[in-house]
């Protein structure tokens, strides 16, 4: 089983609908992230969380909200989806306590491809 | 703010040959980390290699190595003995040192390995 699991893998929705993308991890990491990937733009940070009580906006948080339900779960919501939110969404985790060669490495889920019609 | 630039949108290399992917970055920080991630058609993001800025020695991982030029703010990835399985999108990424732990990505280079 994957260490970082994203559900659903693919989703098609309509403009104006509320949608939630879920991420769960078994790595025991405190830090979790949501990124968005668009063609030609690379990945951009939407939100990140350093622990259950700590939520921070990334560079493109407008139109999104998040919930850190537990150390292992971090959900991304689109309150009212619009077509320009069509993208590939990634969740990632990291452990700030890790030292040595693995320090600061982020581990990614398989992504959720979202299409907003 | 940090920026990461990958100036080669697409590259092609023949199997068994060597290819170098370019990456430059802009930062005023002295403590930072650089990464190359690979995204094959399965779309999974896979870490290829990691470099710590304060280490002068270039990182290597099997057929993958980097040329880290700190003064020039350059971080290129060399793939030796290219294999068909190396076909993927490659992203260069920057992370400031300290507690921030946020990644800034380049726009990616699509590498095609041909027979």
Question: Can you describe this structure?
Answer:
The complex is a heterodimer of chains A (117) and B (115). Chain A has 117 residues and is mainly β. Chain A contains no helices and eleven strands. Chain A has strands at residues 4-7, 10-13, 19-25, 31-38, 42-51, 54-57, 64-70, 73-78, 87-94, 107-108, 112-116. In chain A, the strands form two sheets. In chain A, strands 2, 4, 5, 6, 9, 10 and 11 form a seven-stranded mixed β-sheet that branches. In chain A, strands 1-3-8-7 form a four-stranded antiparallel β-sheet, with no helix packed on it. Chain A is globular, with a radius of gyration of 14 Å. Chain B is an all-beta fold and 115 residues long. In chain B, strands 2, 5, 6, 10, 11 and 12 form a six-stranded mixed β-sheet that branches. Chains A and B meet through strand 4, strand 5, strand 9 and strand 10 of A and strand 5, strand 6, strand 10 and strand 11 of B.
The major sheet of chain A is characterized as:
7 strands, mixed
Count of strand segments of chain B:
12
Q: Evaluate the radius of gyration of chain A.
A: 14 Å
Spans of at least 5 consecutive residues with low confidence of chain A: none
The residue-averaged pLDDT of chain A reads 93
Which parts of chain B are unreliable, with pLDDT below 50 for 5 consecutive residues or more? none
**Count of individual helical segments of chain A:** 0
Q: State mean pLDDT of chain B (0 to 100 scale).
A: 94
Structural class of chain B: mainly beta
Number of strands of chain A: 11
Count the DSSP helices of chain B. Answer: 0
The string of secondary-structure elements of chain A, in order, is EEEEEEEEEEE
Q: List SSEs of chain B in N-to-C order.
A: EEEEEEEEEEEE
Distance between the termini of chain B: 41 Å
Strand content of chain A: over 45%
Tell me the major beta sheet of chain B: 6 strands, mixed
The residue fraction in helices of chain B comes out at under 10%
Anisotropy-based shape of chain A? globular
- Most extensive chain-chain interface: A-B, 26 and 24 residues
């Amino acid at each position: 089983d994957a260490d970082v699991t994203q559900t659903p893998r693919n989703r098609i929705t309509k403009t104006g609908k509320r949608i939630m993308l879920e991420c769960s991890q078994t790595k025991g990491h405190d830090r979790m992230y949501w990124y968005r990937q668009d063609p030609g733009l690379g990945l951009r940070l939407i939100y990140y969380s350093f622990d259950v009580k700590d939520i921070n906006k990334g560079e493109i948080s407008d139109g999104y909200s998040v919930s850190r339900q537990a150390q292992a779960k971090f959900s991304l919501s689109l309150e009212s989806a619009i077509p320009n939110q069509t993208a590939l969404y990634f969740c990632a985790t990291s452990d700030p306590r890790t030292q040595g060669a693995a320090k600061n490495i982020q581990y990614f889920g398989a992504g959720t491809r979202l299409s907003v019609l | 703010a940090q920026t990461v630039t990958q100036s080669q949108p697409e590259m092609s290399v023949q199997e068994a040959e060597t290819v170098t992917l370019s990456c430059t970055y802009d930062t005023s920080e002295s403590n930072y980390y650089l990464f190359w991630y690979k995204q094959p058609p399965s779309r999974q993001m896979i870490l290829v290699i990691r470099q710590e800025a304060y280490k002068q020695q270039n990182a290597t991982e099997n057929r993958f190595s980097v040329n880290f030029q700190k003064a020039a703010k350059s971080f290129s990835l060399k793939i030796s003995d290219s294999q068909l399985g190396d076909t993927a999108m490659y992203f260069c990424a920057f992370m400031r040192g300290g507690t921030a732990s946020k990644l800034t990505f380049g726009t990616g280079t699509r590498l095609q390995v041909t027979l």
